[in-house]
Amino acid sequence: MKVYQCDNCEYASVSKKYRCASCHTGQLQEQTVSSKGNVYSYTDIHIAPAEFAHLAPYTIALVQLNETRAKVAVRMNTEVSIGDAVDFDRMEGGAYIYSKC
Description:
Distance between the termini: 17 Å
Strand content: over 45%
Structural class: mainly beta
Largest sheet: 5 strands, mixed, barrel
Number of strands: 8
Number of helices: 0
Order of helices and strands: EEEEEEEE
Strand order of the largest sheet: 4-5-6-8-7
């Protein structure tokens, strides 16, 4: 998985930006890191927006990736708890789909 790490501070993001959103002076350098991580937070969606209604109910999780400070929002294909080890499964409709390890 690609992340972008600031060369001036500890900020990391999975989306490419021109300048660091934290210190506003650093440049973001592309790094390849493991797609594995741990569930930092999650929520179950029961009433979804119209474009995602066919998926409901589903779980969205914030995953703290290993090897970096970056967190990524993902859709889970299994039930999870905070702290669960998870890994990338596939891309679906532009969304990262993760599973428990």
